[in-house]
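We treat protein structure as text, and this decision shapes the records that our systems exchange. Below, we set out a record of this kind in full and without editing:

***
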Amino acid sequence: MQQVGEKFLTVEEAKELLEKRRKDAELGYEQQNALDYLEKFAKLSKSEAEKMRKELEALGILSEKQVVWLVNVAPSKEETVKAILGQEKLELGTEQVKEVLKICKKYAK
C-alpha cells in the first residue's frame, strides 16, 4: 500500500472520524479498539481541543506534530512540555516554554 499523505490528528478529531465511519459501516477490529481507547482517554472536548490547537499554532514556533502532541497530552507541568518538544529536538527558551504551558494549563483538566 502506498502512502498518499500524512495528517496529524488530535484525539478528538480521530474519535470524530471513527464515529462517522461507524455510522456508515461496521468498524473493523482495530478501528473499534482505537475508538474505545479514544473514548476512554480523550481529555478535552472537541471545541476545547480546537481552541487550544489554534492558540498553540498562533505562537508560530511549533510544528503541526508538536501542537497535536500538546493538545493530546494537555500537559500541566513544564517538564512534560519540554519532554514533548524535546522529541523533535526543539530547544525553546524558558519564556517560550512558559507561554506554551500557560495555554496548555488553560485547557487541562
Observations:
- The CA atoms of residues 29 and 35 lie 10 Å apart.
- Residues 11-24 form the longest helix (14 residues).
